[in-house]
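In keeping with the milestone schedule agreed at the kick-off meeting, the structural modelling team has produced records for the first pair of proteins. Each record is given below as a sequence line and a structure-token line. The laboratory manager (R.T.) confirmed that both were archived under the project's standard naming scheme.
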Amino acid sequence: MESAATESLAITQSLEQFLLALTISLSIATLSKTAPFLRQVPYTLLLVMVGMALAFVDVRLINLSPELILEIFLPPLLFEAAWNLSWRKLQIYWFPIALFAIVGVIVAIVGVAWPLHQWGELEWGIALIVGAALSATDPVSVVALFKELGASKKLSTLMEGESLFNDGVAVVAFTLLVGIPLGTSDLELSSTLATFLTVVGVGAACGLLLGFSVSFLTQRFDLPFVEQSLTLVSAYGAYLLGETLGGSGVIAVVVTGIILGNFGSRIGMNPRTRLIVSVFWEFAAFLVNSVIFLLIGDEIGVQGLGDHLTLILIAIGAVLVARFLGVLVLSAVSNRAAQSQISLKEQTVLWWGGLRGSVSIAVALSVPAAIGARQEIIDIVFGVVLFTLLVQGLTTQFVLKALDLIGDQPQRREYAEFIARREALREVLKRLQNPEDYPDVEAELFRYKQDLVAGELSSVEDKLQTLLQDYPQLREVARQNFDQALLDIEAETYADLIQSGRLEENLTPVLINLGDPQET
């Protein structure tokens, strides 16, 4: 009886801690979006600072076991990024992304581990774990800044694609390297490489199986919230399936997300459902990022950072140098081998924008308690993450402006607003074509409203034409909207035919792979 009461009290305390963390994190994140003087500061940095303040007054939020950290936080973060990554753009830049995500991770691990071992006198096993944790880049705030300032799609795709895949490679590398201090693995090259390929292969296979299965399943019905729930189950299910079968759960989640975002959502979801699912995952990533960065600050001990300041400084310098060399050399290889045309300015942004964040923290917190240097690893990783958020995160926009890489995002935003107005006014005018639908309204008032809406619609169309004349590059946006509208119509038609029983076979939209004449 007493044990049951103790267990009930523990559950109540855990729930209260979770609700407190959730309330604080969402409040701070919301404040950072609404208060003008805080908009220039990444909300993740504000959450870290609040967490540190809570830790300073000895308020501890959530105590999660290391084993649960990766399972809870990684799937939604990775799935949301994979869901929104364009397969077409990924195909264009696959070579540099693969170089950055695979070779770049190796460069980062060795480039961080060697100085920590040589000058910081860390054991090789511990130094390699730190290197693996810090090899994962986190572009959340940087890509958001790209979109706000109008940086090129090329930069965003390179940054997002690299981060998405190097997260998977980094976590696999970490899982293998963490066994060295525990005595369960060694650095024998052939066995390590074989294990790595097996883990990645099994994870990718699980992702393919689950991604295509759910894609064809959602084509059989049109229930938005069920389809949304299936994506959530897919994210966590892919991770658990991959890990259970001896593969990489991270790779499984990434592959599942890419398939569902680029294939499943096209053949099995109507546009409204896709919007609902996209908004849901945007919120999920926002929520997880908010909680994890608050926990970062709550876990950081100022005393621990001070005790390991030398190691943190060495790690910061190593991360910057390794990232610089990696981007410079791998960009040169990609430019020569695949004509990627990554300019020196773009390389500079890729270097300086290579922040470390939630994945690095989740990996560091998942270090088993059996490793004696666990707190040392956490302090070093936290220190580097703080530096990248505070210094690099706050200065990336100035680097973009100094290098003249600001794009035409304000014009694109204005164009999108005009398009939305035109569609809305057209719909209103269509409703006003039938006076009999409004028998209680005077004819004179009805005609006045018709003229008013028609005049406003004409004004919006004139402004649209002027904008297109002043900024011809916006016609590319118009073409993309046109392609997407045609694709939506085709996919919706197939889904309707299947649901009505007139079509048995799952058909992939023909237009999904048809290129534009200008591209050929």
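The second protein of the pair:
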Amino acid sequence: MIYKTHITDISKLIFDLYPDESINLNDIQVQETRKEFNGDFTVIIFPLLKYSKKNIDLTAKELGDFLVKHINYVNSYNIVKGFLNLEFKDFFWLDVLSFSFSENFEINKEKNNHIVLEFSSPNTNKPLHLGHLRNILLGHAISNILKADGNKVTRVQIINDRGIHICKSMVAWNRYGNGATPLSLNIKGDSFVGNYYVLFEKKYREEVETMISQGMSQDEAHSKSTILNEAKEMLVQWENDEPKIIKLWKQMNSWVYSGFDNTYKKIGVEFDKNYYESKTYLIGKQNVLKGLENSVFIKNKDQSIWVDLDSHNIDKKLLLRSDGTAVYITQDIGTAILRYEDFKFNEMIYVVGNEQNHHFNVLFKILGKMGFKWSKNLNHLSYGMVTLPDGKMKSREGKVVDIDDLLNEMYENSKKMIIQSKKSELSSINNLSKIIGNAALKYFILKIDAKKDMLFNPKESIDFHGHTGPFIQYTYARINSILNKVNDFKIIHDINRKLLDEEISLIKNILNYPFTIQQSAKSLNPSILANYLYNLAKEYNHFYQKIPILNVENQKDINFRVTLSLKVSQLIKKGMGILGIDVPLKM
């Protein structure tokens, strides 16, 4: 394919030049020439010296002469300190442009590879917040990128709908709810339930502080807390299918699910299948008990069940408490087993924050110890935390930014920017402000390397001139305006003149699109695609400022430059769509 023809051609000729040597492919390094030097692509000479048996300058000259002689599109070369910079002829770039309009330009053909991707995975005791949002946006974008790279992808989430945290919300509603519902208070269901989780923590702290002030030790106060013990007892009752507890649990969860669905719809995210901890933990328990029978696990005197991971330099891990209730990792064992039964996947990726690194290391080791060969195909995509300008979020104290509140803030901020910039008609502002607000939020989060912690500042994310989603959207709208103005336009891939530097630079960016998708998929990193789209938009704006597009006499020049513009707009729309971001026709 044209996107890697030059790399393949250069590699083959290096093998031809040094036929008696066993050349390592990793020693053949071809990259785009840095902008401060003349050339299109650069061959790094240093790794080739052991094959040429010559000094660096002679090796570079020898290879440069050989490539010019044997590759018809290599025009000339220059050497700078061990770097062989190659200049390509115009017809290579015209072929690239032509090929970019073909179906085969989207490099990655369908692969026989099924990937299950887990992301979001919320608890039903609180609404989705900014911390969840990075997870959701990463998971959604990565699933789209993996699909674009030719994989079959199934998007799943595990809804953590059981456990002590759920019981805390239930206890607080029982004690202080007075029969209130989300409808009666006109509150979104997940926020309604989340308020009771915060209230529980408040009452729990007050109770502990009172007992400590009366002379009790901190440990004793925690152990004797009536509200906490009520939640613990409720968990046991829930696992014993107490009808009243199950009825309340179902009711409160239904309120939360309604709220989740509303939020997912706002940000354009869907799942192929939901798993529920209330069901998968039972599968986990069954397999833990089976492992105990097979001497994979051990039972303590208090009847609790553990796994010994000493051979992996990991401490023993609790799997079932002495009262028979399951711990968090138990449901993850059950969920993993159920998912493999459902999909027979080639790979399973968990998108979960880096505070869970140890948890997944332990989980994968346990599944391996249980004899599941597919456990080797489990991977944890560990991402960094999100903080706000005023510090880290704390769910228990209610110090979080709910996604819904954040979206509303983004919509209002984008509306103000639109009005100030006078970039749109007033009649379309409400819809446009949502499109721009979503882009500002999503792009700001996705442009940061997933592995890095990040500071999210809403005010910095909306800027029509900065490294932002709205800037890329504005570039797309600008191109669309050009396309609407052109008369008698025909797509053409050749021109009877020497290409301008700005035109070649745009075609180079177009050439990089398939490779960008490939690299984003390989590294599970949407920021590679996000930053590519920004650089493409920036390069186009430079082209737009320097080169007349419509205001020229030669119709062929107009058609050629509009063809370039059209291809850029197509890649922006496609790439932003993969990131989950819409682009408006007008701004």
